[in-house]
Amino acid sequence: MTTSDDRARAGLRESATFDRATIAAIQRAADTGIYDIRGWGAKRPLPHFDDLLFLGASMSRYPLEGYRERCDTDVVLGGGHAKHPLHLEIPVTIAGMSFGALSGPAKEALGRGASAVGTSTTTGDGGMTPEERGQSKALVYQYLPSRYGMNPDDLRKADAIEVVLGQGAKPGGGGMLLGQKISDRVAGMRTLPAGIDQRSACRHPDWTGPDDLTIKINELREITDWEKPIYVKVGATRTYYDVKLAVHAGADVVVVDGMQGGTAATQEVFIEHVGVPTLAAIPQAVQALQELGVHRTGVQLIVSGGIRNGADVAKALALGADAVAIGTAALIALGDNHPRYAAEYEKLGSAAGFYDDFQDGRDPAGISTQDPELASRFDPVEGGRRLANYLRVMTMEAQTIARACGKAHVRHLEPEDLVAITIEAAAMARIPLAGTNWIPGT
Ligand SMILES: Cc1cc2nc3c(=O)[nH]c(=O)nc-3n(C[C@H](O)[C@H](O)[C@H](O)COP(=O)(O)O)c2cc1C
């Protein structure tokens, strides 16, 4: 086999601009005449939580003892206007993922896993399934531009409502669900024909600007008797303005989804070239909430997009989020990309750890599929157990860090607990570069 060393010795040099992946993409486009669609989030390197580090306590601050001193993790979401805010035991929630993109048993497992640790899960494009409602103690119901599966009775069955204006993977774009995933059940819930590609709307059909969001939120409150918290979800772009407008419109909770955020099916060019990294979006959102006097009081901030472990959770909270949401990591915890299916991923031209063809509906793990045979491989009870374990580990990791920083509650983490290790991260997160007081741009 020819190695890169052999090629270098032979004087062959790969172009940084036209590297092998770029050449393959051009050839694929030329072969097929079709643009590439895939799942997962942005794969390019971006400034991220790994570019921040915590300053554990030593002399000037006092750490807490891991096994003896408490570090609480609960969070209340949506107390601003709603009669029944959500009380969650941990600040990690499950993001909206559609029934259609995911199998019925996978949605059920998300509910089981979230409920086992006292957190919420969220519906998605395509509506609320009875399995998901049945297994979720706290279920957030998405109200999306497509209105697929929208049912006023389900609004009343939900514990909170999330008005989706955008997603981090595709701000300004709508969803895609290819025909091979539109089973009779999925089609029935969406009141659309089976087997035909569906493209959801990129904006709500009944509004032309932020004032219409105010009207919509009031309608949703009236329908649900002012009981349920109303979230507004935006993809990270002009986050400072979007958060201000969402709060003015009456949101109880703002969800900001950064460009690393996962998707079930979006154009590759969209995923990689539209949006703002999660790290850059959080300070903008926090500034907007602070200027309106509602940060950590009247309105809560949920952040998503590339959250993988307890360190990411702790960093998001330290930057000012009240909670985080996870999508891709939850699917991996359920068993997505598991080495157990390595041979099958290879047959699909992929590999365990690389599989992102959620749009295809041929997922060997039985998660992003509507094929009854594949979906039956997935056990929702076992999936729920795995997800609950993962959520517990994330929470314990965040607590470990919070205690080391001397905090008796994870929400007491603050920007002063962080340093940045790259200039980009320092500028975006508004955190000083390690060993200096320098925040570029301030
Ligand atoms: C399979 C899948 C399906 C999704 N479906 C929806 C959806 O129906 N509505 C929505 O608002 N976001 C949807 N998302 C985006 C998630 O809600 C969330 O914003 C994103 O996954 C967070 O980033 P992460 O995957 O890096 O955790 C989906 C994501 C995935 C991976």
What does this structure look like?
With 442 residues, this protein is α/β, with parallel strands linked by helices. The N and C termini lie far apart (52 Å). Helix content is 35%, strand content 12%. The protein has helices spanning 4-9, 20-32, 104-116, 130-135, 152-157, 184-190, 210-223, 239-249, 268-273, 278-291, 310-319, 328-334, 342-347, 372-375, 380-404, 423-429; strands at 37-38, 52-54, 75-77, 86-88, 92-94, 121-122, 139-143, 160-164, 176-177, 198-199, 230-235, 253-257, 266-267, 300-304, 323-326, 418-420. It has 16 helices and 16 strands. The strands form five sheets. An eight-stranded parallel β-sheet has the order 5-15-14-12-11-8-7-6. Strands 1-13 form a two-stranded antiparallel ribbon. A two-stranded antiparallel ribbon has the order 2-16. It binds flavin mononucleotide (FMN).
Query: Quick one: biggest sheet?
Result: 8 strands, parallel
Quantity of strands, as a count: 16
Molecules bound to protein: flavin mononucleotide
Please tell me the overall pLDDT.
96
* Secondary structure category: alpha/beta
Proportion in helices = 25-40%
As laid out across the biggest beta sheet, the strand order is 5-15-14-12-11-8-7-6
Rounded to the nearest angstrom, the radius of gyration is 22 Å
Q: Identify low-pLDDT runs.
A: none
Judging from the principal axes of the Cα atoms, what is the shape? globular
In whole angstroms, the N-to-C terminal distance is: 52 Å
